[in-house]
């Protein structure tokens, strides 16, 4: 994994804007129509990597384009893609992730789904108002339930993702790029009618997803584990648990992820957490200080987290008291998906320098809070990546002066 040895490197959290023809192809398939997706997808990944190269992104990804999105606004493709890559699931009409209930877990901590978020209860009028700007997840779609042993069936899909990204990297002069893959703790927010316990379900998903993790690393790419659930589950538990109980609930998920990552090189793995990318108030988000220790228990070489939006920017101060382990890297978000305002390069540089002053400039790669694709307009998303690289250039001049 690259490090900022002589300049501040840049990357992003994964999702980038889909090209219109790819979105249309995925929409056609979802509607049961015939559509040529493979060629459109290959071309779209090539163009997305080209745009990253033009802007100056140091470590690009495929924009998560292989994770089907049939609408320009899509907050969930990072997660729902696994429905098509796991066996043992049954899609059921009438289920939906915005209203579901989930089986209780060890310690009687229970997640209750997006529709039961405490933030939503606090701002019910705003969430129910379609003009408020809060995207609440869309209409329920067929929803998966585990009805048999969970297995990995996505070999062809991940092979295509790898093939497309590697071809694009080669075409545009890159030696390193990353693909995202969902953590088992985030997979298990689907329903379960097969496993006796929450813990058994999590570990089964870990064994299944390990195949995708290995495929990405064996291909010579960087693996990014996407795991918003570590922070985000907190707001999906009513009544609010104690922090200690929530940490115990979450540690089971961290241990299952480390089981899935066993034997894989840490310096080829980065881990992403966030508090959910929907545009709500987020007043019930769990503080970073309560989960930073759990994050650092994940066997990864780099850690990606929100640090640019107005609910979490102040939490750079956590690193005044937390020691980054030797050899590790942080990827703080210094531009945000949560606003249409494009950050000024000077602000981006200031944010980078704060972290560099606390953990060392060589241990910081500037990134985005969360995925930009499907959250904000494509023109704004690409402008945010450009200001990210401009801010990194300013910070580099100051830090290596």
Automatic annotation (TrEMBL):
Q: Which residues form a coiled coil?
A: none
- UniProt-listed Gene3D superfamilies: 3.20.20.210
For this protein, what is any one GO molecular function term?
Answer: 5-methyltetrahydropteroyltriglutamate-homocysteine S-methyltransferase activity
Any GO BP annotation? methionine biosynthetic process
Enumerate the Pfam families for this protein: Meth_synt_2
Cobalamin-independent methionine synthase MetE C-terminal/archaeal domain ranges (all copies):
179-392
Please name the source species.
Cellulomonas denverensis
The name this protein carries in UniProt is: Cobalamin-independent methionine synthase II family protein
PANTHER family (UniProt xref): METHIONINE SYNTHASE, SYNTHASE, VITAMIN-B12 INDEPENDENT, PUTATIVE (AFU_ORTHOLOGUE AFUA_3G12060)-RELATED
InterPro entries, per database record? Met_Synth_C/arc (IPR002629), UROD/MetE-like_sf (IPR038071)
